[in-house]
Amino acid sequence: MLFGVLLAAGSIMTAEAQDPYAMQRKAMLDDIATLTRETRFETGRAALSERVMAAMNKVSRHRFVLPGEEHYAYDNRPLPIGHGQTISQPFIVALMSDLLDLKAGDKVLEIGTGCGYQAAVLGELAREVYTIEIVAPLAKEASARLAALGYRNVIVRSGDGYLGWPEQAPFDAIMVTAGALEVPPALVQQLKPGGKLVIPVGPRWSGQELLVIEKDAGGRTSTRKALAVRFVPLIRDKR
Ligand code: SAH
Protein backbone atom coordinates (compact mmCIF):
# COMPACT_ATOMS: atom_id res chain seq x y z
CA MET A 1 0.00 0.00 0.00
CA LEU A 2 2.66 2.41 1.10
CA PHE A 3 4.67 1.23 -1.86
CA GLY A 4 1.75 2.14 -4.20
CA VAL A 5 1.49 5.66 -2.75
CA LEU A 6 5.20 6.18 -3.16
CA LEU A 7 5.04 5.00 -6.74
CA ALA A 8 2.18 7.39 -7.53
CA ALA A 9 4.03 10.31 -5.93
CA GLY A 10 7.08 9.36 -7.93
CA SER A 11 5.23 9.43 -11.24
CA ILE A 12 3.71 12.87 -10.49
CA MET A 13 7.18 14.16 -9.72
CA THR A 14 8.48 12.74 -12.98
CA ALA A 15 5.68 14.45 -14.95
CA GLU A 16 6.47 17.74 -13.21
CA ALA A 17 10.15 17.35 -13.98
CA GLN A 18 9.39 16.65 -17.63
CA ASP A 19 7.03 19.60 -17.94
CA PRO A 20 7.47 22.06 -15.06
CA TYR A 21 4.79 24.32 -16.56
CA ALA A 22 2.05 21.67 -16.82
CA MET A 23 0.06 23.01 -13.86
CA GLN A 24 0.37 26.64 -14.93
CA ARG A 25 -0.74 25.69 -18.43
CA LYS A 26 -3.76 23.86 -16.97
CA ALA A 27 -4.69 27.02 -15.02
CA MET A 28 -4.36 29.03 -18.26
CA LEU A 29 -6.80 26.65 -19.98
CA ASP A 30 -9.26 27.08 -17.10
CA ASP A 31 -9.00 30.88 -17.45
CA ILE A 32 -9.63 30.59 -21.19
CA ALA A 33 -12.71 28.42 -20.59
CA THR A 34 -14.07 30.87 -18.02
CA LEU A 35 -13.54 33.92 -20.25
CA THR A 36 -15.09 32.07 -23.17
CA ARG A 37 -18.25 31.44 -21.13
CA GLU A 38 -18.31 35.05 -19.90
CA THR A 39 -18.10 36.49 -23.42
CA ARG A 40 -20.44 33.96 -25.10
CA PHE A 41 -23.16 36.51 -25.91
CA GLU A 42 -20.67 38.64 -27.86
CA THR A 43 -18.61 35.90 -29.50
CA GLY A 44 -21.46 33.42 -30.05
CA ARG A 45 -19.29 30.65 -28.57
CA ALA A 46 -19.86 29.27 -25.05
CA ALA A 47 -16.93 26.87 -25.35
CA LEU A 48 -13.97 26.52 -27.69
CA SER A 49 -13.39 23.38 -29.71
CA GLU A 50 -11.41 20.52 -28.20
CA ARG A 51 -8.90 20.84 -31.06
CA VAL A 52 -8.15 24.46 -30.14
CA MET A 53 -7.91 23.70 -26.41
CA ALA A 54 -5.55 20.79 -27.16
CA ALA A 55 -3.36 23.10 -29.27
CA MET A 56 -3.28 25.68 -26.45
CA ASN A 57 -2.25 22.88 -24.09
CA LYS A 58 0.48 21.68 -26.43
CA VAL A 59 2.30 24.90 -27.34
CA SER A 60 4.92 25.91 -24.76
CA ARG A 61 4.17 29.61 -24.29
CA HIS A 62 7.22 29.91 -22.01
CA ARG A 63 9.40 29.35 -25.08
CA PHE A 64 7.98 32.51 -26.71
CA VAL A 65 8.43 35.11 -23.95
CA LEU A 66 11.54 37.14 -23.10
CA PRO A 67 14.26 35.36 -21.10
CA GLY A 68 13.50 35.78 -17.40
CA GLU A 69 9.74 36.17 -17.99
CA GLU A 70 9.00 32.43 -18.24
CA HIS A 71 7.39 32.49 -14.82
CA TYR A 72 4.58 34.74 -16.18
CA ALA A 73 4.23 32.90 -19.48
CA TYR A 74 0.94 31.19 -18.58
CA ASP A 75 -0.75 34.26 -17.08
CA ASN A 76 -3.74 35.18 -19.17
CA ARG A 77 -2.33 38.52 -20.35
CA PRO A 78 -0.12 39.98 -23.05
CA LEU A 79 3.60 40.34 -22.26
CA PRO A 80 6.34 42.50 -23.85
CA ILE A 81 8.56 40.78 -26.44
CA GLY A 82 10.84 43.74 -27.31
CA HIS A 83 10.66 46.21 -30.22
CA GLY A 84 7.60 47.78 -28.51
CA GLN A 85 5.54 44.70 -29.38
CA THR A 86 3.74 42.08 -27.33
CA ILE A 87 2.76 38.43 -27.22
CA SER A 88 -1.06 38.31 -27.34
CA GLN A 89 -3.27 37.28 -24.42
CA PRO A 90 -3.82 33.49 -24.46
CA PHE A 91 -7.63 33.85 -24.39
CA ILE A 92 -7.54 36.03 -27.53
CA VAL A 93 -5.16 33.60 -29.28
CA ALA A 94 -7.51 30.71 -28.46
CA LEU A 95 -10.67 32.61 -29.41
CA MET A 96 -9.29 33.87 -32.75
CA SER A 97 -8.04 30.38 -33.59
CA ASP A 98 -11.47 28.95 -32.79
CA LEU A 99 -13.32 31.59 -34.85
CA LEU A 100 -11.44 30.43 -37.96
CA ASP A 101 -12.92 26.88 -37.65
CA LEU A 102 -9.71 25.38 -39.04
CA LYS A 103 -9.49 21.92 -40.57
CA ALA A 104 -6.32 19.80 -40.56
CA GLY A 105 -5.76 20.32 -44.30
CA ASP A 106 -6.09 24.13 -44.28
CA LYS A 107 -3.62 26.68 -45.59
CA VAL A 108 -3.57 29.73 -43.31
CA LEU A 109 -2.13 33.25 -43.47
CA GLU A 110 -1.29 35.24 -40.34
CA ILE A 111 -0.38 38.93 -40.33
CA GLY A 112 1.73 40.04 -37.33
CA THR A 113 3.97 37.10 -36.37
CA GLY A 114 5.51 38.83 -33.33
CA CYS A 115 7.25 36.09 -31.32
CA GLY A 116 5.46 33.36 -33.30
CA TYR A 117 3.17 32.03 -30.55
CA GLN A 118 -0.09 32.37 -32.47
CA ALA A 119 1.64 30.92 -35.55
CA ALA A 120 2.63 27.84 -33.52
CA VAL A 121 -0.97 27.38 -32.35
CA LEU A 122 -2.12 27.68 -35.97
CA GLY A 123 0.62 25.22 -36.93
CA GLU A 124 -0.99 22.66 -34.60
CA LEU A 125 -4.40 23.18 -36.23
CA ALA A 126 -3.68 23.51 -39.95
CA ARG A 127 -1.52 21.99 -42.67
CA GLU A 128 0.49 25.08 -43.61
CA VAL A 129 0.87 28.47 -41.99
CA TYR A 130 2.33 31.52 -43.76
CA THR A 131 3.02 34.41 -41.42
CA ILE A 132 4.30 37.95 -42.07
CA GLU A 133 6.02 40.30 -39.58
CA ILE A 134 6.93 43.90 -40.40
CA VAL A 135 9.73 44.20 -37.78
CA ALA A 136 12.55 42.30 -39.50
CA PRO A 137 14.46 41.21 -36.33
CA LEU A 138 11.23 39.82 -34.83
CA ALA A 139 10.57 37.85 -38.03
CA LYS A 140 14.08 36.42 -37.89
CA GLU A 141 13.81 35.47 -34.21
CA ALA A 142 10.35 33.93 -34.66
CA SER A 143 11.51 31.92 -37.66
CA ALA A 144 14.49 30.50 -35.70
CA ARG A 145 12.34 29.81 -32.63
CA LEU A 146 9.63 27.99 -34.62
CA ALA A 147 12.27 25.93 -36.44
CA ALA A 148 13.92 24.99 -33.12
CA LEU A 149 10.53 23.88 -31.78
CA GLY A 150 9.99 21.71 -34.85
CA TYR A 151 7.24 23.71 -36.62
CA ARG A 152 8.25 22.82 -40.15
CA ASN A 153 4.79 23.76 -41.45
CA VAL A 154 5.12 27.43 -40.39
CA ILE A 155 6.84 29.80 -42.83
CA VAL A 156 7.80 33.29 -41.66
CA ARG A 157 8.75 36.28 -43.79
CA SER A 158 9.28 39.94 -42.99
CA GLY A 159 7.25 42.55 -44.83
CA ASP A 160 4.02 44.55 -44.81
CA GLY A 161 1.16 42.12 -44.24
CA TYR A 162 -1.38 44.73 -45.43
CA LEU A 163 -0.67 43.40 -48.90
CA GLY A 164 -1.04 39.75 -47.91
CA TRP A 165 1.09 37.04 -49.55
CA PRO A 166 -0.11 36.92 -53.18
CA GLU A 167 2.39 34.21 -54.23
CA GLN A 168 0.85 31.77 -51.73
CA ALA A 169 -2.82 32.83 -52.11
CA PRO A 170 -5.59 31.76 -51.89
CA PHE A 171 -5.92 30.82 -48.21
CA ASP A 172 -8.60 28.85 -46.37
CA ALA A 173 -8.30 31.25 -43.45
CA ILE A 174 -6.57 34.52 -42.62
CA MET A 175 -5.87 36.02 -39.20
CA VAL A 176 -4.62 39.55 -38.48
CA THR A 177 -3.10 40.04 -35.01
CA ALA A 178 -2.58 43.83 -35.14
CA GLY A 179 -5.32 46.48 -35.10
CA ALA A 180 -6.17 47.78 -38.60
CA LEU A 181 -7.90 51.04 -39.45
CA GLU A 182 -9.87 49.21 -42.12
CA VAL A 183 -10.05 45.73 -43.63
CA PRO A 184 -7.12 45.43 -46.10
CA PRO A 185 -8.71 44.69 -49.52
CA ALA A 186 -5.82 42.37 -50.54
CA LEU A 187 -6.63 40.04 -47.65
CA VAL A 188 -10.27 39.69 -48.71
CA GLN A 189 -9.09 38.99 -52.25
CA GLN A 190 -6.66 36.30 -51.04
CA LEU A 191 -9.37 34.42 -49.12
CA LYS A 192 -10.87 31.29 -50.71
CA PRO A 193 -14.64 31.05 -51.17
CA GLY A 194 -15.92 29.46 -47.95
CA GLY A 195 -12.97 30.95 -46.05
CA LYS A 196 -12.88 33.14 -42.94
CA LEU A 197 -10.86 36.24 -42.04
CA VAL A 198 -10.55 37.32 -38.39
CA ILE A 199 -9.26 40.86 -37.86
CA PRO A 200 -9.38 43.60 -35.20
CA VAL A 201 -10.54 46.87 -36.80
CA GLY A 202 -10.84 50.31 -35.24
CA PRO A 203 -9.02 53.50 -34.29
CA ARG A 204 -5.37 53.33 -33.27
CA TRP A 205 -4.64 52.38 -29.61
CA SER A 206 -8.26 52.73 -28.53
CA GLY A 207 -10.93 50.11 -28.75
CA GLN A 208 -11.21 47.89 -31.80
CA GLU A 209 -13.82 45.32 -32.78
CA LEU A 210 -12.76 41.81 -33.64
CA LEU A 211 -14.49 41.13 -36.98
CA VAL A 212 -15.24 37.75 -38.52
CA ILE A 213 -15.57 38.10 -42.28
CA GLU A 214 -16.86 35.11 -44.25
CA LYS A 215 -16.63 34.68 -47.99
CA ASP A 216 -19.40 32.52 -49.43
CA ALA A 217 -19.15 30.12 -52.36
CA GLY A 218 -20.16 32.94 -54.71
CA GLY A 219 -17.42 35.23 -53.41
CA ARG A 220 -19.74 37.56 -51.44
CA THR A 221 -18.63 38.55 -47.96
CA SER A 222 -20.56 38.98 -44.72
CA THR A 223 -19.16 40.53 -41.56
CA ARG A 224 -20.02 40.13 -37.89
CA LYS A 225 -18.53 41.65 -34.75
CA ALA A 226 -17.19 39.08 -32.29
CA LEU A 227 -15.70 41.09 -29.39
CA ALA A 228 -14.30 44.45 -28.28
CA VAL A 229 -10.50 44.09 -28.24
CA ARG A 230 -7.26 46.09 -27.96
CA PHE A 231 -4.29 45.28 -30.21
CA VAL A 232 -1.07 47.08 -31.09
CA PRO A 233 -1.58 48.92 -34.41
CA LEU A 234 -1.08 47.44 -37.85
CA ILE A 235 1.68 49.65 -39.27
CA ARG A 236 2.38 50.29 -42.93
CA ASP A 237 5.69 49.86 -44.69
CA LYS A 238 6.74 53.35 -45.88
CA ARG A 239 9.36 52.18 -48.38
N1 SAH B 1 0.70 37.12 -33.32
C1 SAH B 1 1.50 37.61 -32.20
C2 SAH B 1 1.03 38.98 -31.77
C3 SAH B 1 2.01 39.98 -32.15
S1 SAH B 1 1.58 41.67 -31.83
C4 SAH B 1 1.52 36.59 -31.07
O1 SAH B 1 1.42 35.42 -31.35
O2 SAH B 1 1.63 36.96 -29.90
C5 SAH B 1 1.37 42.25 -33.49
C6 SAH B 1 2.56 42.17 -34.40
O3 SAH B 1 2.15 42.71 -35.66
C7 SAH B 1 3.78 42.97 -33.98
O4 SAH B 1 4.89 42.14 -33.88
C8 SAH B 1 3.93 44.00 -35.10
O5 SAH B 1 5.30 44.31 -35.37
C9 SAH B 1 3.27 43.31 -36.27
N2 SAH B 1 2.80 44.17 -37.36
C10 SAH B 1 2.29 45.42 -37.28
N3 SAH B 1 1.96 45.88 -38.50
C11 SAH B 1 2.27 44.89 -39.39
C12 SAH B 1 2.16 44.76 -40.80
N4 SAH B 1 1.69 45.76 -41.59
N5 SAH B 1 2.56 43.61 -41.37
C13 SAH B 1 3.07 42.59 -40.61
N6 SAH B 1 3.19 42.67 -39.27
C14 SAH B 1 2.79 43.79 -38.66
Concise summary:
By secondary structure, the chain is α/β, with parallel strands linked by helices. The protein has helices at 2-18, 22-38, 40-43, 50-58, 90-99, 117-125, 136-148, 185-189; strands spanning 79-82, 85-87, 107-111, 128-133, 154-158, 171-176, 191-201, 208-215, 221-229.
Please identify the structural class as seen in this structure: alpha/beta
Largest beta sheet, briefly?
7 strands, mixed
Query: Which percent range fits the helix content?
Result: 25-40%
Oligomer: single chain
Q: CATH superfamily name? A: Vaccinia Virus protein VP39
CATH C-level class is Alpha Beta
Low-pLDDT segments, ≥5 res: none
The name of the CATH topology is: Rossmann fold
Report on this structure.
With 239 residues, the chain is α/β, with parallel strands linked by helices. The protein has one domain: Vaccinia Virus protein VP39 (Rossmann fold). It contains eight helices and nine strands. Strands 5-4-3-6-7-8-9 form a seven-stranded mixed beta sheet. It has a two-stranded antiparallel ribbon with strand order 1-2. Helix 2 (22-38) packs across helix 5 (90-99) and helix 4 (50-58) crosses helix 6 (117-125). The longest helix has 17 residues, at 2-18. The chain is globular, with a radius of gyration of 18 Å. It starts with a helix and ends in a 10-residue tail after the last strand. Residues 85-88, 111-115, 117-118, 132-135, 138, 160-162, 177-178, 232, 234-236 line the site of S-adenosyl-L-homocysteine.
